[in-house]
Specification:
globular, mainly alpha, 88 residues, 0% strand
């Protein structure tokens, strides 16, 4: 169920999320991190990771909310700090 909520949120806020990922901060990105189970004390690492991997996460013309959420889940799972901290 939480995966559906995350994908729905990403669908409704895709443009804002894309812009905030490029900046490495923002309200929508904070909400996404929370929905994805990233603890508040690890949001800074999540923001930095999304900014660092922006081009691979949001590829022009190919990006979709579903693909974005899947890519973010994969990135969290492969991140040394976030993988341990995530509640999923």
């Amino acid at each position: 169920m939480s995966e559906q909520k995350t994908t729905m949120f990403a669908s409704l806020n895709f443009d804002a999320l894309s812009a905030e990922m490029a900046q490495g901060k923002g309200e929508h990105l904070t909400s996404l991190a929370t929905l994805m189970g990233v603890p508040a004390d690890r949001h800074a690492e999540f923001f930095a990771m999304t900014q660092e991997r922006y081009t691979s996460l949001v590829q022009a013309g190919e990006a979709s909310p579903v693909a974005l959420v899947k890519s973010l889940n994969d990135a969290i799972a492969g991140h040394p700090v976030l993988a341990q901290a995530s509640v999923r």
